[in-house]
TrEMBL record:
Its EC number is 6.3.4.20. Belongs to the QueC family. Pathway: Purine metabolism; 7-cyano-7-deazaguanine biosynthesis. GO terms for molecular function: ATP binding; ligase activity; metal ion binding. It is an enzyme of class 6 (ligase). It comes from Comamonas antarctica. This is 7-cyano-7-deazaguanine synthase. The keyword Transferase does not apply. The keyword Nucleotide-binding applies. Pfam families: QueC. InterPro entries: QueC, Rossmann-like_a/b/a_fold.
């Protein structure tokens, strides 16, 4: 079964790539402010592992809100990094690419803490799996780390420290701002796992 990974270049998806070794990885440049760094990080892990890497470019920046779009948060935003229907959008665009590549299973890097947003919950992943699999192509969606913290995922995957250093988690820019939720997560996770890494 041909498997793809939605690869953002953040800690979670890099660790999934190292752990699951998908046949294909797909990175989306949808107009987010950190797109260039995310593509560099994604390319680095794919080169290291020999994974076929595709980049899909669709400018949705006019539809974004908050940190990732360098815009004011939407009135419905539960957090500053919320982008309306972001995970639904990402899954749809990547699923469209998967059909052409003959992919049957799509992995995503959702972890336990992503449940702070509705589109990071097990229920959301289940519904997206049901929605995509009932359509032509029968694509299945799986979040293998959804019960793990990011630190637990990194330890499970045995991601080496030099590859973890490539991860880009900043929501605001191509260089870490160190004052967004993504940078805070990176720093806290790195502190937690670095002592146990080679």
């Amino acid at each position: 079964m041909k498997t793809a990974l939605l690869l953002s270049g953040g800690m979670d998806s890099l660790a999934i790539a190292w752990w699951k070794r998908p046949d294909v990885a797909i990175t989306l440049d949808y107009g987010q402010k950190a797109a260039e760094a995310e593509k560099r990080a994604s390319a680095a892990v794919c080169t290291q592992l020999g994974i076929e890497h595709h980049i899909v470019r669709i400018d949705c920046s006019s539809l974004g809100s908050g940190d990732m779009a360098n815009a004011a948060p939407d009135a419905a935003a539960p957090a500053s990094d919320w982008w309306p229907y972001r995970n639904q959008m990402l899954l749809t665009f990547v699923a469209m690419k998967c059909i052409g590549l003959g992919v049957k299973k799509l992995l995503i890097g959702t972890v336990r803490s992503d449940g702070s947003h509705i589109d990071g919950t097990p229920e959301f992943v289940h519904l997206m799996d049901q929605l995509l699999s009932m359509q032509e192509g029968g694509l299945r969606v799986e979040a293998p780390a959804i019960d793990l913290s990011t630190a637990e995922l990194i330890q499970q995957s045995a991601l080496p420290a030099d590859m973890l250093a490539w991860a880009h988690s900043c929501h605001k820019a191509n260089t870490p701002c160190w004052n967004c939720r993504g940078c805070n997560k990176y720093r806290e996770t790195y502190d937690e796992v670095s002592a146990s890494m080679a």
